[in-house]
């Protein structure tokens, strides 16, 4: 596995400060920003929003890192992350105020705009069940001082950590009659999140006000707002958070129907297979989400892995899937692989959401193997079996796919992308 810049920096830090020996003796190691800066900027060397972002030494030794002051961190075998759970898949449709011209809700390109849209449209009011919400606190602030218990997985018990004036950031704070909702927003899809992003703001405001403080995580991607409401059952315990509610919302737009899909399927011109690895990336939503992020800026392989809960291999798979579709490309810059949107990829974000989804359908169905697989679906009335898909693949002159095991692995991607297309149709 290729080592990231963070892997290399932490190898040097672990060696210089004998960090593993200190943790084995004391149960933790405290390190200052100035010491980290010797090998890598501390801001970059300590930002691990997902468990998979952790440097190899942390993963191998079951370690995590948390800030405890504005310039220091503590490393131990903390249970610092929480996996997302889906309580329902229904998508609630909400209308956007007709008189708002300064926000294009069909082309949301940042977390701050996503939060504004969720507030303006009434998504937040519906989710929190309070129609008196007003924006109050947001931005960077100091945590003040507090202590908490956190589970240490290597010794399987809670240990106490004290935080004093650590920097925190609140993406959005909305106060209503009975509560203050603190929102952590992301425009990237992931499997888990760092509990600290909810817990530190919760502790700051839970100690300051009488009203109930509601920690909310919001994920926006490809027209869908997914909101998760948590409660810390014991405010002094970092690991006591429990998911109490989860809902999905979309802002009303033109529907995609069966004829839209069939129109593309039977009229698209089939292209020659590109000399690019055939996709091994099952989640089309994540490919689209990666394009959303690349629309804002070019990203190195490390930056993609840091934004997502991807390792370098998954980064390659999803970026290569975008390259296969002709919407992502890569170049070498200062020794790094840098990914960017092609002109065709950029055009996707200049049209409304319905047209964008249909363009993704076109990009998929112009490839013979996907086109034939979807035609088989309409002929059979169900998704073709993997055996049938493999037969189609073998007739489609795919680039560097030869062994039977590879055909069957890639067949799963075809089934997943066909399912994604079918899910676009409003039943």
UniProtKB/TrEMBL annotation:
All residue ranges annotated as the DUF6996 domain in the record: 7-75
Record domain DUF6997: where: 77-250
Pfam families xref list: DUF6996, DUF6997, DUF7226
Chain ranges of the DUF7226 domain: 286-425
Protein name as catalogued: Uncharacterized protein
Originating organism: Keratinibaculum paraultunense
